[in-house]
Amino acid sequence: MAVNIVSRESAEALIHEQIMNTVFQDAPKSSILMQLGRKLPNMTSKQTRVPVLSMLPMAYWVGGDTGVKQTSRQQWENVYITAGELAVIVPIPEAVLADASFDIMGEVIPRVNESIGMKFDEAAIFGVDRPPEWQNDIITLARQAGNNVSGGITFDTILAQDGLFGKVEEAGYMVDGVIAAMRARAALRGIKDDASRPIFMPSMQDRTQYTLDGAPVYFPENGSFDATVAQMVAGNWRQLVWAMRQDIETKILDQAVIQDPATKEIVYNLAQQDMIALRVTFRAGFAVPNPATRLNEHRTLVPFAYIEPGTPATTYTATFTVKDSSGNIEGAQIDLNGSILRTDASGQAVFNLRNGEYPYVVKADGYRKQTGTVTINDGAQTPTITLVKSGS
Q1: Which helix (H) or strand (E) holds 97?
Q2: What is the CATH number of the domain that holds 347?
């Protein structure tokens, strides 16, 4: 005889399922650049001026008892930190908030903050969506100084004389940190000593501590590292400065309308559709002042270097020719949005740039400075700058 029971299946609609009151996800990751760089006091306006030593005085030997002492000078320039704005609006129906088993706002805000850190790192390190008023990104600065290393991640490309660290040291700085793509961990584990022993794995039981010549290696987990542009970036990160104009601020909107940025069409009317929207804003800027030092008097070297990917990012040349009414000028300084080169005997200096607009300032002793902008759009550029003598 069949025995009838109230089974779990028949009473499933009445059984209360236990729901964990947390969401299983990675902990929000913050900006690696903000951790490693030097934070300046908060900005009081959109732009902050940082005086930078640009010329060093020089001492001279005096010849004989009646020799004439020579003069020298010291000079400063301004480097500007301009605040760029990051913002996002997250619309949420009020009914969804009311019915949710979790604190949706508590889950959204940390992820928005993480995205802000990612976008800041991408722009400052790799130039991804870099605000036009910002100085060149770290990769562009290093590329103009010749601080790009090819050949993959090997012992020699990192620590040999002309390797990653050597490029930074040539500018007079010690590497205090390295950032790398997550896939670089496997490449580092594959580096072996002369006895074919992995140098990063002393024990299979111990967690591998990644350091290179005493400098810690960081593997950003916020998605900011662009492995199509670099495999590894090393530098003296204290030479990078950043400042906030406005800390991350959140505001709940309930009476606004949300428009499509492209078409300007109203997508949501919050009051009419019983919705709220979380608005998050953040304003900050960065710079690499790169002051003159005895090992880098002309500021053409920079305290950063990088290892290129297997297929280097495409760049195009911008060949500047600087001259006056009588011919080419040797030793003229071209400051291309923070990247500095000096013209050679033919009056030329060559930059290797990715697509974009780059403001420049050209200066030479005894001449008026000249400013302009060069635009790179899938092709080389050959700007010619004619300087006028001071007082003319």
Answers
A1: helix 94-99
A2: 2.60.40.10
Which long-range CB contacts under 8 A does 170-173 form with residues at least 24 apart?
A: 170/295, 170/301, 171/145, 171/293, 171/295, 171/296, 171/301, 171/302, 171/303, 172/293, 172/294, 172/295, 172/296, 172/301, 173/235, 173/236, 173/239, 173/303
- Dump pLDDT digits (tens) for 362-371: 999 999 999 9
Query: In angstroms, rounded to a whole number, what is the distance separating the alpha carbons of residues 29 and 46?
Result: 27
CA dihedral (366, 367, 371, 376) in degrees, to 10, reads -90
Q: Is the pLDDT of residue 231 over 80?
A: yes
Whole-prediction pTM value?
0.88
In a domain, 263, yes or no: no
CB 253 within 8 A of CB 90: no
Distance CA 45, CA 269 (A): 33
Could you tell me if 155 and 186 lie in one domain? yes
What backbone phi and psi angles, to 5 degrees, belong to 110? -60, -35
CA dist list (Å): 128 to 27, 97, 113, 254, 284: 24, 34, 18, 33, 16
- Lookup: tokens for 225: 């590292």
Residues 210, 130 share a domain: yes
Tell me the per-residue pLDDT of 318-334, one tens digit each, with 9 for 90 and over: 999 999 999 999 999 99
The mean pLDDT of 334-340, rounded to a whole number, is: 97
* pLDDT digits 0-9 by tens, 177-193: 999 999 999 899 888 87
Residue 113 sits in the same domain as residue 204 = yes
Determine the longest span between alpha carbons in the chain, in angstroms.
Answer: 129
Query: Residue holding tokens 């008097």?
Result: 297
**Is residue 199 within 8 Å of residue 213, measured between CB atoms?**
no
Strand-pair partners of 305? 234
Please state, in angstroms and rounded to a whole number, the distance separating the CA atoms of residues 252 and 91: 10
Are residues 291 and 323 located together in one domain of the fold?
A: no
Same domain for 327 and 301? no
**Domain identity same for 85 and 206:** yes
- What is the distance between the alpha carbons of residues 215 and 105, in angstroms, rounded to a whole number? 39
